[in-house]
Amino acid sequence: MAEPVLSVRDLHMTYRVRRSIGAVEEVRGVDGVSFDVPTGTTVGIVGESGSGKSTIGRCVLGLTRPTGGEIQLLGTRIDSLSARQLRPHRRHMQMVFQMPRRSFDPLLTVRRSVEQPLRRLRSELDADARATRVAEVLEAVKLGDDLWDRRPGELSGGQLQRAAIARALAPEPALVFLDEPTSALDMSVRGEILGLLMDLKDRVDAAFAFVSHDLEAVRAVADELVVLYLGQVVEQGPAGRVFADPRHPYTQALLAAGRFETDGVTLGPRGDQEPASGCRLAPRCPFAEPRCRELQELRPLQDELGLARCWKATETVDA
Amino acid sequence: MTAEATPRSGLAGNRRRRWLRPPVVILAVLVLLAVIGPAIVPHDPVRPDPMNALQPPSWQHWFGTDNLGFDVFSRVIYATRVDFSLALIAVLIGGGIGSVLGALAAYRGGWLDTVLLRVVEVVQSFPVFLFGIALFAAFGDGQRNLVIVIAAVNLPLYLRQIRSALLPLRTAEFVQAARCAGLGPTGVVVRHLLPNARGQILSLFALTCAYAIQIIAGLSFIGLGIEPPFPEWGSMINAGASYIIQGIWWPSVFPGLAIVLSVYALSGLTSERLSSGPGGAV
Amino acid sequence: MSENDTVPSVPSRAPGRSGHRVIAAWGRFLIGRLALLVLVLLAVSLLTFGVTRATGTPLYVAVGQQATQEMIDARAEALGLDLPLWQQYSNYLQNLLRGNLGQSRRTFTPVSQDIAERLPATAELVTFSILVSLLWALPLGIRAARKPKGFAARIGEGLAQFGVSVPGFWLGLLLIFAFYYLLGLFPAPLGRLGNVPRPPFVTGFFTVDALLAGQVSTFLTALWYLALPAITLSFTSAPPIFRITRSSVSGALRSDFVAAARSYGIAHRLVMRRHVLRNAAPPVMNLVAMTFGYLIGGAVLVEVVFSWPGIGLYAVRAMDFSDYDAVLGVVLLSAVIYVAIYFVVDLVQYLLDPRLREG
Amino acid sequence: MTETLLSMVDVEVSIPTANGDVVPLQGVDLDVRAGETVGLVGESGSGKSMTLRAALRLLPERAAVSRGDVRWRGRSVLRMEAADLRRYRGAEVAMIFQDPVAALNPMLTVERQIVDTYLANREGDATAAREAAHAALLGLDIPDPAGVLGRYPHQLSGGMAQRVNIAMALVCEPDLLLADEPTTGLDVTTQLQVLDLLERRVRDEHAALLFISHDLRVVARLCERIGVMYAGRVVEFGTREQITQDPRHPYTRALLSCADLAPGRRPGFIRGQVPSLTIRHELCPFRARCDHVHDACERLPPPRRETTDGHLAACHLEVVPHG
Known about the structure:
The structure holds four protein chains of four kinds.
Chain A: E1 6-20, E2 23-37, E3 42-46, H1 53-60, E4 68-73, E5 76-77, H2 83-90, E6 93-96, H3 110-121, H4 127-140, H5 157-169, E7 175-179, H6 187-203, E8 207-212, H7 215-221, E9 224-229, E10 232-238, H8 239-244, H9 249-258, E11 299-300, E12 307-308, H10 311-318
Chain B: H1 9-19, H2 22-40, H3 72-108, H4 110-124, H5 128-139, H6 143-170, H7 173-180, H8 185-196, H9 198-221, H10 233-244, H11 250-268
Helix pairs in contact in B: 2-3, 2-11, 3-4, 3-6, 3-8, 3-9, 3-11, 4-6, 5-6, 6-9, 7-8, 9-10, 9-11, 10-11
Chain D: E1 4-17, E2 20-33, E3 37-41, H1 48-56, E4 64-72, E5 75-76, H2 82-92, E6 93-96, H3 110-121, H4 126-137, H5 145-149, H6 158-171, E7 176-180, H7 188-204, E8 208-213, H8 216-222, E9 225-230, E10 233-239, H9 240-245, H10 250-259, H11 295-299, E11 304-306, E12 312-314
Parallel strand pairs in D: 3-8, 3-9, 6-7, 7-8
Antiparallel strand pairs in D: 1-2, 1-4, 4-5, 9-10, 10-12, 11-12
Helix pairs in contact in D: 3-4, 3-6, 4-6, 6-7
């Protein structure tokens, strides 16, 4: 198995949140997350708000510094590098953001914005080489060339997100991290961007990470799936398997809710107190038992079906 | 629920009108006076003529004469250069340093941000005039110290305003995209943050110049900064003050009008209002 | 839909934490704020100390022109100017803490005593100027928020623009010329009561003391003398109050919870009082308090124009006389008052807003 | 035939701006009968939210109804006096907003706000109001109703805050409840629970519901009759089955294909963009993006064709070819 483009090991991110006067609470935003993203595959990372999925993206791209764990990009460790040391590695990873309109400097034309990563990360290219590369990627995302010299204000959400994907592909990165790329788009535009991503997935040899709470969108593009709950991975595996046969109660509830089924697994209301130890879903889980209080490890499922952090998921396999 | 992109055509139309509004015209006249004023002045602003002191406004002396016989009109014109140039220099120095620190505080955040904010708090806890008096007591009189005082007042003002203008931009996605594109902090600030705050910076500049003129006049009014007989609006108002209660209004009124006109012209340039808060004018 | 990118939106713990933990939390908060207050005051005193040493003239002026070198050295020693700088600063600090601001070379009385006599005059002037400002800035500000293109909005913005554009000291002169010289409606700008005997001292506010002593005519005279200077000063304090009232009220009016309240048919008066004003008040109250603290030192010029016997006039006269201890005493005091009010305002903010208090 | 509560007849709303008028509603026709759940689906800029605001006569600043009428039980809401309008809002029609926490006053406790709403719409003193507030929270799956009453809005999760808003709206005992995308801001798992809760409580209270969302699946699940909005007008209206199984307007068909994504199959999407609302569209506003456009669409405004069983579509096409 080739070295994965991105490998995240035991990533931690704890915040000191000031609740009220003097009461500072430590919140474990990301609590020991590990996963790999091999080249040529798309790993879907799903979870609800507060699950830590966007934080992972910001740590991988060096926009915030994690409080623990390791991030390796193409074999070199990047989480402990200074901004200057990280710069040469940035050409291997790029990000697409949720709000297309906010991810472009309103004063720059689309062409200038798409060219920006090339100027610094591919300084070996001269002006013409950059210009051709920009044209290449803008054509690849099928953005009308009449829009290339316009300012973001004159483009629609869908058009801007296409340009954002072009900008991310410009320096030919090994990893493209998509943080909720379709969540801010209307239904009618979401399909357009997902279709584009499905085409690019096959034509571009890079690793893709697709973070979203929109399960339908992830299902359309993801090869592997990582399911997060309150900063922890609760289930992991090939996307087909996880969607067809979810093993962890949370994944089951999440997929049922995504399909508007109320007869499937449903969770209790989201309480305030996080359990100190054991499974964090216990207070809401319909199958909770006393042993859920013990520490739940991410244990492998049968024949590469992935991992799950629940005795119930792996027990049926063992028994 | 309004449409996303409002049509562009309307903008060009009112941009032309924006430049012909009264404040701009008045400002142009004032700047002109500041430049060529001293040359076209009817009477010598520094040569007293005690014989016809305190003459009311007449064809000969449009703004009348003051207690030493100076022609008020000539001195008001002459003083335009003094007040405008000092205000400009002081605001550029104080504003320049303040903006850079503000941008760094907004972008770097963390301890630098808190330290700078505390320093600003200390400096702004001194009321402008007492602060001026204290600095004059330390460094003595003169235009150089006046510029220092005004710059010292403007520095925290710019630091705070630029910081609050740039802070929301810092977390904007396009700034994070720039960082992903390999831009360092200075690159982000210079290429993305400052250009996007250009409107606010220009407004701030206009408003703080207006504010600086008022401080210069105020300080001179209490005898600090520019010493009479050198023509300056504030000291001219002071010279005429004691005669007001005898009904001799013109030596004080006309320089004050010049200040009001300058401040109106400068603050009229921008629709934004420096909610000046306690740092308000004199 | 997605979490905000830095801090997860996990709701906080339910209220009703045990009593002692709340007190402990408040304790930590107060200590934190007090530490900040002390830090700022130290910085302020450092600045004024720096100024006293930088003037470098106390010795020369204190001893007089023809002094011989020995006399200067003796004097220097007496004043402890030969000690290392930090020791001089600690002496300076100890004096400050004991309320000893040095001696005025003009009035030959301790500076702290001079200030104590004059502070009430400034405080009364500032208080009435803010009352005058509130009279028009608040109602017009609220009305301007509700009818942005309306009559009140135009008048309010006009007055605010006038207040910002017109230098206070010049306006004072104009008012004197118009209302004293031409119309004779108001007294000459010579102090607080003219020749009317002062009411017995209680608060130092002639208006309040006169009322307490039942001397109605003195009270009216005091108001009569206060009118012009207070109105002049109010043109400085009113514009920010008008603008912040307008912006925070219109912000509340545009909020979802006001739309919700109106959609439930809640009476307009109740919507205004409990939803709009309750949310719009804190920023306005903060600004009014800060303006009060600021004008204590900011009323200098108006005091000079109306020869109002406050600390501003005292500082300017001291300045003309190179009486640096007096000047710096006033500067230090007004900074301390400003910082103290800043601290109180910060505290009240925490008490009023459940988002800060309850967490 | 049950009584028609709300009927909007050819309603047009326009907002004057510096560069000319913006017209978010361009002739909306809609009626809601007693006890019925009607849904409005439409994307951003379609005008669905403005429709609810027009129904309550709570339009944003400077916006005004420039044509048509809004009638409640036959009486025009637009011509109601202030006192009648205040009684109409709350006691007759109540609304739930998209951002649950922002719709609550941060300075007041949950109890205080529900009590105020109760006192504004029903007879009873403060104690009756407090009991009603507590009772209102029951039946909403709230683990600790008494505790929630004492809390401030910033201490509630999205789901909990929306339950409070539902309770507050129902305390007024309205005949019609308006819901502006109430579950869009919530987590997927919470969204389903709040939707079912809303449906159950509305049925228990025998109130009608006008529910709007950008997500056709949510509307199809909850509402008996559905209207599809595009560029400020209702382009199709019919029962849930008619809309989901036999859509007659090309836009509705396109929306359906976008909504169901199957793995491996290329997702459907609609090319082009929503038209600008600064012009009043005489012709069909969807024609630039429609796959079935033909010359009639470029010349004549789309007729409002209605089938015998009430399935209405504003389109020239007689029968829309499948596929």
